Amino acid sequence: MQTSNPLALLPLALFLVLFIGSGLYYQSQGTDFAFYQISAPVAIIPAIVLALCFSAGSLNNRLESFIKGIGDSTIITMVLVFLLAGAFASVVKAVGGVDATVNFGLSVIPEWLLLPGIFVIAAFIATSMGTSMGTIAAVAPVAVGLSESSDLPLLLTTGAVVGGAMFGDNLSIISDTTIAATRTQGCAMRDKFRLNLMIALPAAFAAILLLAYQSNPGDVIPQDYEFIKVVPYLVVLVLAVLGMNVMLVLLTGILLAGGVGFMSLPDYSVAQLSKQIYQGYTGMQEIIILSMLIGGLGALIKQQGGLNFIAQTIEKLTHREGREDNRRVGEFSIAASVAAVNLCTANNTVSIVIAGSLARDIAERYGVNAKRAASLMDIFSCVVQGMIPWGAQILLASSVAKVSPLELVTSVQYCWFLGLAAIISVIIARPGYGR
Question: Do 183 and 74 touch, CB atoms closer than 8 A?
Fold first, then answer.
């Protein structure tokens, strides 16, 4: 019988208290990005120390378990892909690919479809780039400018950017959430992509229709752009959808973006390309360090029975006596586990990493297919991330637009539709769905 020990969760609770408590404190002081003043990789250190104290055996054995968790093949693969994804995003932005893609989209979108167009542009860039934060940073300033020069409501315009960014973050085959979800559940990215698409497309269609209804015509003149700078995004998107190995896709994207830089920028050099790649590496260091430390902490918590306790608790909460449906119970349990962690950590990738082992155990117990489990984890983590005012995406967008995060979450319509579509899919799906 597996050990079930609620005390094994205390280290995780300590991490959340330190991380969220510091955020609440700085928020009360009026500090920008309050929940990110104390870095999560630092806040987790006391939790790791507590977990080591709780673990049985000699100190060397406890440290060995922790290190094995850090060195898990899932974690190391994620780290390598994070590095390459950061490098690609950095290089393609530096050579002007983001601005070119935005202006390319604006040049082909009718004025009366500006709001849906902004959503589609953000969705395309996020799907190609694999990062919602990078997409918001690139597109939000343009969207704010469009709102100022037209009759578009600022909250809806900014919300369309966040919604499109979350759409791409959820679907992109090079997104850190996709990488984390598929690696923790042991399924192919392409299979998870197809299942996500069946839920995300109806939600996106509903959001686009509502945005089209809310759009107002305006006079917007796109800037000049070079189509060659859009090519790296297009190639990465096509190769990713075709199912090519994600590392090869990213390497190809980096080389293409560098080649575009050499062809279109007169002073571009190998030294500049090298610096941009390294900047991409450093931009991913927080999520890399945190993923590794969480891998070690998760190994200690699982060893002591903490994850099994959560699984049993969720099972009791979701089980309905007399109307047992193992598949529905398992899928709602997976959704609840990742959503609950995401509410506390305000990071969709981190929540997937933390809940990954638990979700896999639940999936095996209730017969949920691995790709279906990965799909649900990614979807519900993105839904929660787009709805919490203390999430990084909402904070960044509200900072750019100079609006309240609490007001902005009500305008991220896609995430609300996505959550509804995901819940409906769990309720109506046949027992063999996703197999």
Answer: yes
Q: What percent of the chain has pLDDT over 90?
A: 16
417's CB contacts (< 8 A; 6+ apart) are: 202, 203, 204, 206, 207
Per-residue pLDDT of 77-100, as tens digits, reads 778 877 887 788 788 888 888 777
**CA-based angle 15:19:21, to the nearest 5?**
110
User: Are 182 and 192 within 8 A, CB to CB?
Assistant: yes
- The predicted pLDDT at position 378 comes to 92
Is the separation of the CB atoms in 185 and 360 below 8 Å?
A: yes
- Per the rule left: phi > 0, alpha: psi between -120 and 50, beta: everything else, 33 is left
Is 97 in contact with 302 (CB distance < 8 Å)? Answer: no
- Among residues 375, 169, 372, the alpha carbon closest in space to that of 287 is found at 169
Helices (H), ranges, 131-188: 132-148, 154-171, 176-185
Question: How far does Cα 293 stand from its chain's mean position?
Answer: 18
Closest CA to 210 of 402, 415, 395: 415
End-to-end CA distance of the chain: 29
Question: Residue 234: CB partners within 8 Å, gap ≥ 6?
Answer: 128
What kind and span of H or E run contains 356? Answer: helix 348-366
Q: Residue 266: how many CB atoms within 10 A of its CB?
A: 5
Q: Nearest CA to 334 among 304, 295, 303, 372?
A: 372
Read off the DSSP letter of residue 415: H
What ranges in 284-369 are assigned the alpha helix state H? Answer: 285-303, 306-318, 326-345, 348-366
* Rg of the chain, C-alpha, whole Å: 22
Q: Where are the beta strands (DSSP E) in 150-239?
A: none
Which residues have CB under 8 Å from 236's CB, separation 6+? 88, 128, 174, 249, 250, 252, 253, 256
Model pTM score: 0.69
The encoded tokens of residue 131 equal 């990062």
From residue 92, alpha-carbon distances to 1, 86, 87, 89 in Å are: 52, 10, 9, 5
